[in-house]
Amino acid sequence: MIGPETAATVVGPARKPRDDEIDVYGLTHTGKIRKENQDHFLICALKKQMAVRQTSLPNLDSITAEPERLAFLMMVADGVGGGTKGADASRLALEAVTQYVAHSTRCYYAATSQSDEEFTEALQEGAVLCHAQLLRQGEGNPDCRGMATTLTLYLGAWPRAYLLQVGDSRCYLLRQGELTQITRDQTMAEDLVDLGVMTRADASKTRLAHTLSSSIGGRSATPVVTRHTVAWGNVALLCSDGLTNHVSDERIRERLRSMTSAKQVCEDLLEEALEGGGTDNITMIVARALPNES
Questions:
Q1: Which residues of 81-193 form beta strands (DSSP E)?
Q2: What is the pLDDT of residues 129-163, one digit of tens each?
Q3: Which long-range contacts (CB under 8 A, 24 or more apart) does 98-103 make?
Q4: What is the value of pTM for the model shown?
């Protein structure tokens, strides 16, 4: 049993985690102010499987056993657009990307490849196709015009992880007890900070901090894919801004460092966000790999 103080820095075996060694949990909550939840999340595994149709072999157990996990997929989407548009946009985005990943042989090939370019192009292609699908839906249905969503996608193909970012939902990584935001908020405020026009402290106080410069289904979608190396005990957190609006990075770090399970820390962070005001929908996924040699 790994205690909470050592969970974030544990050194595991030199192998890929089994499914039962992945501690992962996600939740979403409407918050205290909004009447509707426009966030959605998804956690799933990408596996390859051989389906035996007919054979004379007497023992099929070794062939038809549980298929090996190629990659682990997590996504958070925060819809914008008001009314049902935001909820529909985030739902459609996750459904479209999931369908793309599930049926794209390119994604399956990339999951077993050492080529960063293959994975980057496959993920960007999925985001672009999803963006185009939402735009077409808006063109064909007036009720769907103006709907858009953020999309933060984490695809772990051990010991690599690929992160796709559109919008301002975030991904944090806790390594050796230190918390790092590994996504860049795609907002007008962040663009001005990068240009040197505003300081980050000033920009965070303006409405531009919540004005997206890139979104799925919006005026512009600029998917950014980055690669990271993951290890046993690292903790990944994907979240919408309903969490980070009310819970500081320092508090998130403290919670992740002392976590006993992904479910427990998600529930504790949700409680803090609600106590801090709960002015927006709150969605998060927490995941880590812990060795189980028993």
A1: 148-149, 151-157, 160-166, 170-175, 178-181
A2: 999 999 998 888 887 888 999 999 999 888 989 99
A3: 98/42, 98/44, 98/73, 100/125, 100/126, 100/129, 100/130, 101/46, 101/73, 101/126, 102/46
A4: 0.88
